[in-house]
Amino acid sequence: MTKVAFIGAGNMNSAVILGLINAGVSPSNIMVTNPSPEKREKLAQAHGILHTANNVEAAEFADFIVLGVKPHLITQVTNDIANQIDVSQKCFISVAAGTTMAQIQQSLSGKGSVIRVMPNTPSQLGLGVSGMYACSQTTEQQKQVAQEIMQAVGIIKWLDAEAQIDDIIAVSGSGPAYFFLFMEAMETKAKALGFSDNEARALVQQTALGAAQMVVENDISIAQLRENVTSKGGTTQAALNTFREGGLPELVSNAMDSAIARAKEMAQDS
Ligand SMILES: NC(=O)C1=CN([C@@H]2O[C@H](COP(=O)(O)OP(=O)(O)OC[C@H]3O[C@@H](n4cnc5c(N)ncnc54)[C@H](O)[C@@H]3O)[C@@H](O)[C@H]2O)C=CC1
Ligand SMILES: O=C(O)[C@@H]1CCC=N1
């Protein structure tokens, strides 16, 4: 049975662990590490998975090692593991933004295989999106298992070029936060209009859920769905005009470019 180690008990790894458990993976095949006992013990207790403070012990246990620490720590962690055990048969899956394949491979002295994955937090509901890019040493079997791990938490897209990881970050990796910001702004205004906290939250979340579900279930374009809400000369048109006058479409494009630029900057800093 494939064994998976998760280095770091943070947001992203917790999401993938939860997804795997929900998908029926045996907890005894999953080990999580974290320097502080609280976070890893909480996860271990919640799911019955194994835990340790020792990254090398976890890497020894597993065939697949999911690197879920902050980008600047990735190569430190992989270098430390590769200095202490034979990693030639291991497959490292890095979910870090802005740490390149070359940087990770170098830290492993070229041993083992590396797959860069860019998931997102809706993975914890099984509604994630993951972009995946594998190094040339990755075997078909390793690619298949990595794909199964990420498919347990959502849809995946294999990428042909590593640079596309940064594009996926801008779309789906950071994307949930764009929608949260929008929902927060609507919630704040709903409260200002006099709705209670609970009412404002319920109104906004159901609207967002309904809109997303309409996109999923209809075979027409998103633009058409928008037009269907927009009566000529009506209230929606008035609101959308205000968004356009404020430059919303350009702002979204600029924001996504900022995410891409930041991913590239982070690669320089790593
Ligand atoms: N949060 C998100 O939506 C997404 C995050 N990512 C990537 O996932 C990675 C982790 O991000 P988050 O989960 O948000 O961060 P986080 O801060 O929630 O989790 C990182 C965890 O690693 C632990 N840690 C620190 N040093 C460690 C070490 N030497 N060994 C083991 N564990 C250690 C920390 O205590 C913390 O619990 C980042 O590289 C980020 O780029 C990727 C896609 C989406
Ligand atoms: O904000 C970040 O850097 C990470 C990568 C995508 C989502 N969170």
UniProtKB/TrEMBL annotation:
EC number: 1.5.1.2
Short name of any one Pfam family annotated for the protein: P5CR_dimer
UniProt keywords, alphabetically: Amino-acid biosynthesis, Cytoplasm, NADP, Oxidoreductase, Proline biosynthesis
Cell location: Cytoplasm
Keyword Amino-acid biosynthesis: yes
Pathway: Amino-acid biosynthesis; L-proline biosynthesis; L-proline from L-glutamate 5-semialdehyde: step 1/1
Entry-linked NCBIfam families: proC (TIGR00112)
Name the record gives this protein: Pyrroline-5-carboxylate reductase
Organism encoding this protein: Thalassotalea eurytherma
Gene: proC
